[in-house]
Amino acid sequence: MKLTGIIAISGRPGLFKVIAQGKNNVIVESLVDKKRFPAYSSDRISALEDISIYTDAEEKPLKEIFLAIHTKENGGETISHKEDDAKLVSYLTEILPNYDKERVYISDIKKLFQWYNLLHKSGNLILSEVVEEKKEEATEEKKEKPAAKKATTTKTKLTAEKSAAPKASGAKKVTATKTSTSRGK
């Protein structure tokens, strides 16, 4: 799951994509309505890739939870964040059974499902495995083409060298023979 460049700003609903960075601010674009505005250093900004959910053992990154939801829903949207609290807690328990029930509040659970659906609707919910596979395929294709060219070039050079050596010596002999024959007449 690739969440790089996606942020949440405290006090503003929704999620935002970082477009540019200035000296004292960051230009962001809303994933909902595509409006751009500056977010200042005084705003409380959280990058989604840095957010985790407490579990009994350790913290679980948000991208892993989104991946579990994505797998459970077969790539579709999940339940609405406006559902009954009991349904939301039940759904989270199915996905992450060992989440810390004392430190993860219902408001956090609602944000989790709201963010997932928002990322899904905006097309920013991209599995990193798919992105990596496409990059690997492109890289492999690029590597194969130059390698084939190098092999062809090397074969051509070797063939040219082998062919050129006898022809050159043969050409000298033929030239020498022709010259001596012309002088003799």
Spans of at least 5 consecutive residues with low confidence: 148-185
> Structural class, from secondary structure content?
alpha+beta
Based on CA atoms alone, the radius of gyration comes out at: 32 Å
User: What is the total tally of β strands?
Assistant: 7
The second-level CATH architecture of the domain at 6-128 is Orthogonal Bundle
Helix content: 40-55%
CATH class of the domain at 6-128: Mainly Alpha
**Separation, N- and C-terminal Cα atoms:** 88 Å
Average pLDDT level: 78
Please list the strands of the largest sheet in the order they lie side by side.
4-3-2-1-5
Return the CATH topology of the domain at 6-128: Arc Repressor Mutant, subunit A
Question: Element order, helices and strands?
Answer: EEEEEEEHHHH
Count of discrete alpha- or pi-helical segments spanning 4 or more residues: 4
What best-fitting shape do the alpha-carbon axes yield? Answer: globular
SS strand fraction = 15-25%
Q: Oligomeric state of the chains?
A: single chain
* Sheet with most strands: 5 strands, antiparallel
Question: How would you explain this protein's 3D organization?
Answer:
The protein has 185 residues and is an alpha+beta fold. It has a domain at 6-128: Orthogonal Bundle (Arc Repressor Mutant, subunit A). Helix content is 52%, strand content 16%. A hairpin with a 6-residue loop joins strand 1 (6-9) and strand 2 (16-21). The N and C termini lie far apart (88 Å).
